[in-house]
Amino acid sequence: MSPLAAPAADRQVASWRKRMESKNPIFSRRGAAGQQTWTGPTPSARELNDMYAAPSYAPPSERAMTMDDVVMRGFMTLGTLVVSAALAWYFNVGWGLAAPAMIVGLILGLIVSFKQSTNPALILGYSLCYGIAIGVLSHMYETVYNGIVLQAVLGTMVAFGGTLAVYALKIFRPTPKFAKFVVAAAFGAIGLMLINWIASIFVSGGLGLRTDSPIGWIFSIGMILLGCFFLLLDFSEIEQGVRAGVPERYSWLMAFGLTLSLVWLYLEILRFISYFTNND
């Protein structure tokens, strides 16, 4: 190193130490007299240049989730469900295939929900299996109540659009207390339906929660509102996830949540309309 280069290197070292004092706790340690206690080796000018040239942070291993990712995954999950439902309807596969498909779909849905899995195979498998079950169930309802499926689809679209408008216009935004209430209400509703099913073994209609009666109407309205509440939570989770920059793979989980809420809504609206549809 030339005599002229030495002072320049010393100035670089002094400048580097001054910068690092505020960033590195090692260099910010002081003795009783205010002197630095750091006695490590002084980096050379080449080492300093390499350090300055290095990136200040490691690039992310996975890009952040965007709203477009959620929309695309949503189309894929809903598309799988609709196509499988249409095929099950067209070929009239019956409950011999629909019942096992519903059980498998329920198991996959529970795995995704409790493990918060972002595995596309599990989520698309849920859509495929539940699509078969919904196709058979819809065909059964359409046979008894002509035109009811189209009404239920339109009702689901209206409910989805209305809930989205409420969220987008900031008329209502979910809070942590609201989320706890919705989850508790969902567990309570599932528990009531289970008790109603057990009671129906001994008494016709059970508790009356799923019958064409005022109690059945009120319960169905409550289930439809609960589905709309779940949509509000889905919208909030998607927005927060995009703002937080969660990894792109979580768009699958967001799409699964939307699909689950829409399936809930469709089935409840289908049942509610059947109470007021003439089957002649």
H/E order of the elements? HHHHHHHHH
- Apparent shape: elongated
Mean pLDDT: 83
Measured distance between first and last alpha carbons: 101 Å
Helix-strand blueprint:
Elements: H1 5-21, H2 45-53, H3 67-91, H4 95-115, H5 120-144, H6 148-168, H7 176-202, H8 214-244, H9 251-274
Molecular structure report:
This protein has helices spanning 5-21, 45-53, 67-91, 95-115, 120-144, 148-168, 176-202, 214-244, 251-274. The protein has 280 residues and is mainly α. Helix 5 runs parallel beside helix 9, helix 6 (148-168) crosses helix 8 and helix 7 (176-202) runs antiparallel to helix 8.
Question: What's the short story on this structure?
Answer:
Helix content is 71%, strand content 0%. The protein contains nine helices and no strands. The longest helix is centred in the last third of the chain and has 31 residues, at 214-244.
Main attributes of the structure:
280 residues; mainly alpha; elongated; disordered N terminus
